[in-house]
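Complex record, two chains
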Amino acid sequence: MKIVAICGLGVGSSVIGKMNIDSIVSDNGFDDVDVDTVDLGSVSGKTAEIYVTTRELFDNLPEDIKPKTIVLTNFVDKADIEKHLVPKIKEIQGQ
Amino acid sequence: MFMKALNFIVYQVLSNETIFLGLVALIGLLLQRKKFPQVIDGTVKTIIGLTVLTAGAGVLINALSPVVNKLNTTLHVRGVLPTNDAVFGVVAKFNTIAKNTVITFLLAFLLHLVLVRLTHKEIFKNTYLTAHLALYHAAFMNVTIPTVLHTNGFWTIIIATILNAIYYTYSPAIPRKLSHDWMHDVSTLGFMDQVGSLLATGIGKVFGSKDPSQDADHLKLPKWATMFRDNTIMLFFLMPIIFIGIGLAVGRSGIENLIGGGADATNWILWLILEGFQFTAGIVILLQGVRMFIGSIVPAFKGISDKFLPGAIPALDAPTIFPYSPMGGMFGFLGSTVGCILVTFLTIIFHSPVIVFPSPIIMYFDGNVMGIFGNKAGGWRGAVAAGFITGMISSAAVILFYPLTGVCYGSGLTWSNIDYALVWMPLMYLLKWIRLGILALL
């Protein structure tokens, strides 16, 4: 499964998001989860099962991406990411 | 035979910044006990990422150099576009300076960890994790210090390491203190705007109002304004304007001279627009490269910091604070855009020896950060004023520090944040005067 964290340039806050997601994934023992980062402009070319971004960027996402997107207040709050992300991963992995 | 092999390793392999940073990633990943496929992934992405970055830099420099050179020779000025990512591409082309930059970057991070470890004050317990800016800034130090102090590579690295480590350790305390009520010490700002955040707060207080109804985040902005959050879209519109601006200053015949003759030669305005697109494409490629290696370097830094500095909060890249006041950021961006463009006009009108073009980094990233602090201190008017004034200061300061940037002086590119105006430019002049003072005494 692929998870992509989106920020304006894909080099700053989304990298922090990626690290938190990586550690949530390993804490929860999910297998086969690959986490990547991307800039807002390149989202369409990046296929994934789950997208993660912050609320001020959500409106700018392509329409077909929006239903697959988790909207966070920020990429720093690991507990908040975990609360939204874990159910979604379980749903997709069919557990 | 042994000496030959050693020489080969030291002077050929390790002195190549691409391989060197690849090794750093490799060691970092091994220290974190990552699994074998992850170690390979991170190491390969670092090496290829840096190579992609250099290739992207080539594309944007090829687009910018001819027109800026033409402008410089036609008008006897120095035209410059402040863009951190792009100017790092220029530095990366100089092998020795690039290698010294990577060494400075690593030593400064390690010394920073030691300084944080030694401090007892809670407010200074921050780890600066914005690795790409730390790398760009290490490059700044490695081109300016030899210019102002006439130091060799060794002493440049020593001085740059100490100054950078001090900055990474103590500056994030400023935004941490200012943002305590709304960021709650979850993280702080680790950009090149930390001293600037204090100025933005002051400007917000003077020009704005604390009245909650003035808070920018209670206002709605037209939908079109938010599309500039996409970096590619912003550059797509901005760069052709800058290129046409340069083209108009050079004049039609000068530009047609660059394009070359022939009946089917591209129209000069269209050519300038296409050059603007090429510059944008160069930035997109370059950032793709940064994205590839930053994903390996930052986790390595974080892993080391978590082990060595329990309890420290991360000092992070500018966009991590954008969610705390998206509209304040937008107003700051608009204010800064006006401020930067105004400086461009003023440098042309008053025949400044350096013409500063509007920097996408100053307008967007600094503009947002300044707007957020301005808004928190004084609502939307505070945000606009903070963006406008700091945009002007950041742009104008380039006139003073661009001539100090050694091999980058004349490249048409330079560094681009408010703290270059408030911290590094004054500091470099101070170092220069100290050296001249000592020489005069001797």
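Note: The CA atoms of residues 63 and 74 of chain A lie 21 Å apart.
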